[in-house]
Amino acid sequence: MKIISIANQKGGCGKTTTAINLASALGLNKKKVLLIDLDAQAHASLGLDIESQDSLYNVISNLTPRKLKIENIIKRVEDTFDIVPSNILVGTLEQELADEIGRELKLLEIIKTISDQYDYILIDCPPSLGILTINAIRVSDEVIIPVETSRFSLQGVDHLMDIITLVRERLDHEVKCRVLITMFDSRLRHSFAMLETFKEKFETLLFDTIVHINVKLKESAVCGQPVAFFDKYSRGSKDYYTLAKELLLIEKQEKEEEAPKEEEAYSEPEPAPQEAPQTEEIVLEPTREKMTSLEPFSEKMQETVAREAQEFFTTRFAIDAPGAKSVYVTGSFNDWSLDDGCRLKETDGQWEVYIPLKAGFYKYQFIVDGVWKEDPNNSRRERNSFGDINSLIEVNAEPALEEK
Ligand SMILES: Nc1ncnc2c1ncn2[C@@H]1O[C@H](COP(=O)(O)OP(=O)(O)OP(=O)(O)O)[C@@H](O)[C@H]1O
Ligand SMILES: [Mg+2]
């Protein structure tokens, strides 16, 4: 069982959207999931069309005339995951708990009574660093910090990480943190520059998955549904599905790393020499390939993905850029978005990537160290609305570009 808080004191950076859609994506991956709405704004509850007169307030508060157990307030969402709803009264807990002894451990006491029923418990935190957020961090194994590239504040994330370190030291509780880029707008060049800054600063703490800006995520919240139920094939649905898969892969890797330690503890003093165990290498493949190779939402989706995969032509994109640190290709084939699937790899100054594309006509550009460039080796081009040049390719049964 893993408890993950989704926290950032900065408002509107995608905490609730991540909490709802990660809960549903993990649930669709057959995991038992509980989402705890810890925000008095109750956006997670409202975003799932759940209005409740009862909330964590009735479980935690000593002032309520209607004291309840956590089991009594849990509700089911789309038969996929459970939720502990919130309401405006949850906000009053900040004050009520202020002078209580053991105030940082309230959530821990409550969660331990139900934790064995779930594989994942996700906590949607309020946009503040008050006592509720500290309770959430204290009970968590991991904190996901969503950050929005366009209004990104390094200072804010540093502050939250300081709090996490404080909890680690003062409350003697080990908690990992990871940073998730949300609302990535690939139409803005600024986003790509910010992405490089993120990668340099957070390195392995950054999820490979990037959540792109996608109107379906907004619309689904308005309609009270996780995006996977509102529009399963939307970009937002795929992004959160990919995030869930990345999380499951991380957990698998962690378990594999821990396993030999346990064996060592029980091994004979002088074990017979053995061949090195074959560890399964977990490689995060480009998003589109990941969608074809990983466990799908349903059989129907599996069939659709398999059918679609047959229609792809592996297309090579290449550019000479000696000394460059990063090169991407983006275009109309992926809605001008950016993920690791469109990152080029370098050999002796030449960068290349193979991308499966359906037959069709596409516009594209390279992004070399954050600078957008047309393909110098392709004479088919057109001027775009930014005043620079898009390269053009036509992919068909006999593609114009080299096939793998
Ligand atoms: N990837 C996305 N694409 C488009 N809209 C998004 C995306 N992620 C979130 N939004 C929208 O942005 C707004 C803020 O998102 P959200 O409520 O998830 O942020 P939050 O961090 O939980 O906010 P708060 O700090 O107020 O709790 C919402 O209207 C949501 O629908
Ligand atoms: Mg929120």
The name of the CATH topology of the largest domain is Rossmann fold
Number of domains: 2
SS class: alpha/beta
- CATH architectural arrangement of the largest domain: 3-Layer(aba) Sandwich
The CATH homologous superfamily of the largest domain is named: P-loop containing nucleotide triphosphate hydrolases
- Main sheet record: 8 strands, mixed
CATH class of the largest domain: Alpha Beta
Number of helices: 13
Apparent shape? elongated
Question: Residue share in helices?
Answer: 25-40%
List how many beta strands DSSP finds: 16
- Summed over residues and divided by their number, the pLDDT gives a mean of 83
Gyration radius, to the nearest Å? 23 Å
Question: Could you explain the architecture of this structure?
Answer:
With 404 residues, the protein is α/β, with parallel strands linked by helices. Helix content is 34%, strand content 23%. Strands 3-4-2-5-1-6-7-8 form an eight-stranded mixed sheet, with helices on both faces. Strands 10, 13, 14, 15 and 16 form a five-stranded antiparallel sheet that branches. The protein has a three-stranded antiparallel sheet with strand order 9-12-11. Residues 11-17, 39, 41, 43, 127, 182-183, 211, 213-214, 217-218, 221, 236 line the site of adenosine-5'-triphosphate.
How would you briefly describe this protein structure?
This protein has helices at 15-28, 43-46, 56-60, 93-97, 106-111, 131-139, 154-170, 189-202, 215-222, 227-230, 235-266, 287-293, 299-310, and strands at 2-6, 33-37, 75-77, 81-84, 120-124, 142-148, 176-184, 206-212, 312-320, 327-331, 345-347, 350-358, 360-368, 371-373, 381-383, 389-395.
